[in-house]
Amino acid sequence: MASIRIDGLTKVYPGDVTAIDGLDVTVEDGSFFALLGPSGCGKTTLLRTIAGLEEASGGSISIGDRDVTRLAPGDRNVAMVFQDYALFPHMTVTDNIAYPLRIKKVGRSERAAKAAETGEGLGLSALMARRPGELSGGQQQRVALARAMACQPDVFLLDEPLSNLDARLRLEARTFLKRLQKDLGVTTVFVTHDQSEALAMADQIAVMEAGRIRQLGTPSEIFRRPANTFVANFIGSTPMNMLPGKLVGGVLQVGALEGVDAVAAGWAGREAPDGEVTVAFRPEYARVDGKGPLVFEGTVETTESLGASVLVTARTDDGQRVQVVVPEGEEPEVGAVVGVAPASGRVLVYDAEGELLSPSSSVP
Amino acid sequence: MRTRSVVGRLALVAFLAAVLAFWALPMLWLVTAPFDSQPGLDVSWPDWTLANFQKLSENPYAFSSLQNSVYLAVGTMLGVTALAALAAYSLSRVRIPGRNGILYGLLLLSSIVTGTAAMVPIFQLMFQLNLIDDRSGVILVLTGGLLPAAIFILKDFMDATPKSYEESARVFGASPTQVLRHVVLPIVRPGLATIAVWALVNVWSDFLTAYILLRDPAKIPAGVVMYTFYSEGGQANLPLISAFSLVYALPVVALYLFVNRRYGFRFHGGIKS
Fold it and tell me: What is the complex's ipTM, to 2 decimals?
């Protein structure tokens, strides 16, 4: 068990393609850490560089007190679960789980005993004699996890652990993985492009874009206060409302609406320089009853059922679209005129560069 | 409409029967002629005598030639399989400039190397190496000739093996040789079997290389010894040739049946579940 410290890590592929660009991050001992980002953002490269499958072009990686930057993958005491699980098709479940021990020259009977013990912990006892081809996706994943656990690594690395499972199994596996990680207490880094997966499982999330971390924080910090418009756009199952506006002397002017006092409008931030801004709020943190200082009057265009709630899209007079999530049964009729009002303290203001204008210390 | 389709069907069946007969006749000859007391070039109902095999057993070189064939075939098969496995793995995993060019070039040249065109320089090379009339020389030449195609086929199997298998083993600390031994080779086993059988059969049926490089009648393989079965008058000794043909063909048939049962002649990686 160990923390991971990454300092100024750079990975440049031949042809001057920078996959990781001077990245610093520390993964605390025992935490469940998500690398989240769109495809091509460098998250998988980062994971593979931690594993040693890719060589760092610059910077350093330490696991615990050891600098592992130049060590071979097998000397880092990490275990990796691949996206396709990479179970050896010609070996039984027992032999697969025992493979790391075989490399460590552990005797055959001891290996089998250890594999049986690890397999039992993951509910694989009845499957030990089978081959991977005879297992379901969920079972294959558990075998891959058992194999990773068998070598008792300092760090688990999981590459898109849920993407090979079907939708229903994915939810089960999510809960299972989270519980397993807490039970084992092993520092775990996983890669995902699915923000809901990251929010659900991780203790800490690093949102990546173009080889850099755009925001590092707990799921609730990242969901409530995205540090920039990139993260704001990326996080959330319903897209964040983003409206162009101006901030002049603490007065917020959005679209054709009359200027309102920014703090009164529900902005939790403090003073900021005047200029063009983007006003953002989550559909989940707004209502349609029109109560509040910042209200967007509009006509309901569509309503989409999300199950227990309904996503309402309204179009304001100056052509902006705003979305609100309302509880099921409380949605307005299509064509009705509503006043969309973000909840107090939930309005986010981003400057022209897309950075959040309020210090994170003011998180409610 | 109906009559037309019936007539068409009959014509098709008749045509196929004719084609079948054309290809089947030599096979029939192979089965019947050895048991005929007076084998000719036609297929006829034999009188089921073993006299031809009796004569064959009296020939001093018939049995030793089969031994030589086994020696050459197994030697070449082992060489081709081992070298092709290593070469195909490297070519599949290491990026070197012009990799495909090298492979296609080798493939093109290999048809010359074991072919007639390069026989003179190969003879000279073997002469310089003092490998004339040496069975290892034949094995070397045949191995060289078969290797490119073997590498080409095996590389396909290697390419079809997901890299994550090897990376997974590497993260657990496996060395490159361990990765090859524990993971890659077992997975491409159908490919290795294909190559091995293909090399065996190729060497078994080889004539030219052994004919040119070997002198001593005690060293020549089965494919060449048949060429010596002539009567003093220069007539083909059909009783000997027919009996030997059957003995010569049986191991290949047996090999086919064995491999087909064991591996089912799959020509694709076979790891997709």
Answer: 0.77
B29: three-class secondary structure by DSSP: helix
Tell me the per-residue pLDDT of A151-196, one tens digit each, with 9 for 90 and over.
888 888 988 888 877 777 888 888 888 888 888 888 899 998 888 8
Output the furthest CA–CA distance in chain A (Å, rounded).
78
The rounded distance, in Å, linking the Cα atoms of A83 and A91 is 19
What's the first-to-final CA gap in chain A, in angstroms? 34
Q: List, for residues A269-297, the tens digit of each pLDDT value.
A: 556 677 788 888 888 888 888 777 778 88
- In angstroms, the CA A78 to CA A154 distance is 6
Of chain B residues 148-167, which have a CB less than 8 A from chain A?
Answer: 162, 164-165, 167
CA distance B94 to B89: 8
CA angle at A203 for the pair A197 and A204, rounded to the nearest 5°: 90
Cβ–Cβ gap A52/B171 under 8 Å: yes
Q: How far apart are CA A18 and CA A13, in angstroms?
A: 6
A11-23 burial, b if ≥16 CB within 10 A, otherwise e? beeeeeebbbbeb
How far apart (Å, rounded) are the C-alpha atoms in residues A48 and A29? 19
CA distances from A290 to A263, A268, A312, B3, B269 (A): 17, 20, 14, 83, 64
8 A C-beta contact, residue B62 and residue B218 = no
Q: A242 forms bridges with which residues in the sheet?
A: A280
Out of A86, A102, A104, whose CB is closest to B168? A86
Q: Name B180's Cβ contacts closer than 8 Å, sequence gap at least 6.
A: B89
Cα nearest neighbour of A159 on chain B: B164
- What's the whole-model pTM score? 0.76
Number of residues assigned to chain A: 364
